[in-house]
Write a structure and sequence with these properties.
Layout lengths: L33 H6 L1 E2 L9 E2 H12 L4 E5 L8 E5 L10
Parallel strand pairs: 1-2
Antiparallel strand pairs: 3-4
């Protein structure tokens, strides 16, 4: 589309530590601690093979430690499972610079 990347990060809680990999989607997947992810962050210009860029490291850290988006279950007219409303907290006053 001729524009930069768009990232959507979601903080979820797993029901299990078991991973099922769809080989049509991913070559591999594994659980990693925040410390492990931080140890993989490399500066710009360094090969990303098996590493994490600084920008992605920042986004991952914010997803793990921040309260970026709140999911609120709402009654659904389509059955017993609730619909979800996702909202972001209001921006801080310093964000309007």
């Amino acid at each position: 589309f001729g524009v930069g990347d768009l990232y959507v990060l979601v903080k979820l809680m797993a029901d299990s530590t078991a991973l099922t990999i769809d080989r049509n989607e991913l070559l591999d997947a594994k659980w990693m601690s925040p410390a492990t992810i931080a140890s993989l962050v490399v500066p710009p210009g360094v090969s990303l093979d098996g590493k994490v860029s600084q920008a992605n490291g920042t986004m991952i850290n914010n997803a793990l430690t921040g309260n970026l988006i709140l999911g609120t279950p709402l009654p659904s007219s389509r059955g017993p499972r609730p619909a979800m409303l996702y909202t972001a907290p209001p921006p801080s006053p310093s964000a309007n610079l």
